[in-house]
Specification:
The chain is an alpha+beta fold. The N terminus is likely disordered. It has a single domain, classed as Sandwich (Immunoglobulin-like), CATH 2.60.40.10. Keywords: Signal.
């Protein structure tokens, strides 16, 4: 049986319209809010959720911090995310339910809500030198109907101060508690020898 051309066109249009929603279900980068783009460019029509980032606001250079992105409110049945940083010397590491893609983090699949919240855990490895890292995060709250309508997204950010190694470095030839011990022993030995000579004389 041959389908009319308008029927074939309708099937093709439906596939094209559903493609963005299908693609986003397996994660998407470039929508963390870092460059102004967010998940709202595709998902809209729902009540905006609240997105929060929790974790240390200060890390030593090279240290690893654990962070949690939480999505509450909105349609709230399932959720996705995108996380990025503004410092190329810092590194993001995914937790359960997320993956690293193009130096950013995103969800593997829409994550079901639990106790009214959708959470994603991840790690940040601080740069090797002092400075700061700004974490950008977008959270998407969806109704689970596989369409981009009736969903909503929101963004947040967190600045992490990176402290350097401020421990004083001992200069070569300096006198530390351990390095000064031989000098002190020599001085005591010499002093005792001189004292004995004076007594004998």
């Amino acid at each position: 049986m041959k389908f009319p051309s308008y029927a074939a066109a309708g099937v093709l249009s439906a596939c094209l319209l559903s493609a963005p929603a299908f693609a986003n279900s397996t994660g998407m980068t470039g929508n963390s809010g870092k460059s102004a783009a967010t998940c709202s460019s595709c998902h809209s029509g729902g009540t905006a959720p609240t997105v929060t980032l929790t974790g240390p606001s200060s890390l030593a250079a090279g240290a690893t911090g654990e962070y949690t992105l939480t999505i509450t409110g909105g349609p709230g049945l399932r959720g996705g995310m995108n996380v990025a940083v503004d410092n190329t010397a810092a590194s993001l590491e995914p937790g359960t339910g997320s993956k690293k893609q193009s130096n950013e983090l995103t969800h593997n699949a829409p994550k079901p809500a639990a106790s009214g919240a959708i959470t994603f855990n991840f790690s940040l490895v601080a740069p090797p030198s002092a400075g700061s890292v700004k974490i950008f995060a977008a959270g998407n709250s969806v109704n689970g109907d596989n369409n981009s309508t009736g969903d909503a997204a929101a963004t947040t950010s967190l600045t992490v101060n990176v402290t350097g190694n401020n421990e004083p470095q001992e200069e070569e030839g300096g006198c530390s508690s351990a390095g000064g011990a031989p000098v002190l022993a020599f001085a005591l030995t010499t002093g005792l020898a001189l004292l004995r000579r004076r007594r004998r004389s």
